[in-house]
Amino acid sequence: MSDIREICLKAFEDKFGTKPTMQEYAPGRVNIIGEHTDYNGGFVLPCAIKYGTCMVAKPNGTNTMRILAVDMNNDYDEFELASKIEKHPTKLWVNYLRGVSYQICEKFGDKVKGLDIAIKGDVPPGAGLSSSASLEVCFGHLVSNAFDLNIALMDIALMGQAAEAYIGMKCGIMDQAISANGTKNHAVRIDCKSYGLTQVAVPSNLEILIINSNIKHQLVGSEYNDRRESCEKAAKIIGVPLLRDATMEMLDACKDKMDDETYRRARHVITEDERVLEASKAFEAGDLKTLAKLMYASHISEKNDFEITVKETDAIVDIVKEALGEEYAAVRQTGGGFGGCVVAVVEPKNVEVVKNAINAKYQKISGIGATIFETQACDGATFTRL
């Protein structure tokens, strides 16, 4: 984080002609297992990663947020604080912040004042590692601390989720929840119905690798929302509020009342919830063989039932399986899908084996290179006065 902090500090001083008085940081995330279960009230097992969003800020004595986005070629925007804030017609990045701002203003009114802010992140955009959630949580936590609003971390996460809906993306709570509530050296199993958090220690005999296919996804669109609608349709046919409340027996009893696509979407979610609960135990126990079986089953379900993988992420999974052998290849596509990253949980001795295999084979298949990085499980949102 030190590099992006230094860049942020310099950009702030260059733009605003003064030094910031506060700093905020919120991480991105990688999801070990539990895909598209969050908006169905189910279980997920993400961890916060060592890549995230840094903001430095200073109150400006006005009713206006003035924001510099270093990563967007120093693009700049400002907007007045109010309980109704219009979306910017062309700048997607600031709409995440506008979407959080109007909610805070709705709740806290004139307690919220203007800030000068510079933003710099190092989560690869479009990689499925939650750069937008990191941005939303970073901003929400910054504003809460800047004005002593004491907004609970999960409430900040919910504001981030609502900001996505404001933009047009009906996502679940996982990404914002882990960015806010991450814990060093732990994954966090999130019950997305009760918002319960269970710490799951990362065992010392396992490493987390993220392999970016460099196929960028764009989830603000029909594919993601279509799948959510299919899940809601299935839940309605089964007669439950959320697919979290359904079993495979209940789904199969209603199979003749739904089309094949709706059935397969629901089957993915119901079986994925079961896999998350089993995988949490295997992960904490360092049981790589069981974890490998569950993560690969998750990937196949993503591919065949939910249809969110692409040939490039499928290829990475196959390369890792071939390099490590099926028993030890705990690997799957992670994130919302349609590109992005693959996550692999491996023994330390096999980190280089995986890297070498990907570097030797992926470009020949895809025509582009993959980016591979190791991560630790990190803490969530952190505020500091400078």
Keywords:
globular; Ribosomal Protein S5, domain 2; Galactokinase; four-stranded antiparallel sheet; 11 helices; nucleotide-binding; magnesium; single chain
Structural notes for this entry:
The protein is of the alpha+beta class and 386 residues long. The chain has a domain at 2-200 and 380-385: Ribosomal Protein S5, domain 2 (2-Layer Sandwich), CATH 3.30.230. The protein contains 11 helices and 12 strands. Strands 1, 2, 3, 4, 5, 6, 7 and 12 form an 8-stranded mixed beta sheet that branches. It has a 4-stranded antiparallel beta sheet with strand order 9-10-8-11. Helix 10 packs antiparallel against helix 11. The model has no long low-confidence stretch (mean pLDDT 95). Residues 95-182 form the GHMP kinase N-terminal domain. GO terms for molecular function: ATP binding; galactokinase activity; metal ion binding. One of its GO terms (biological process) is galactose metabolic process. Its EC number is 2.7.1.6.
User: Count the helices. How many?
Assistant: 11
What is the terminal-to-terminal distance?
15 Å
CATH topological fold name of the domain at 2-200 and 380-385: Ribosomal Protein S5, domain 2
Instruction: Give the CATH class of the domain at 2-200 and 380-385.
Output: Alpha Beta
Query: Main sheet, how many strands, which sense, barrel?
Result: 8 strands, mixed
Please trace the helix and strand order, writing H or E for each element: HEEEEHEHHHEEEHHHHHEEHEE
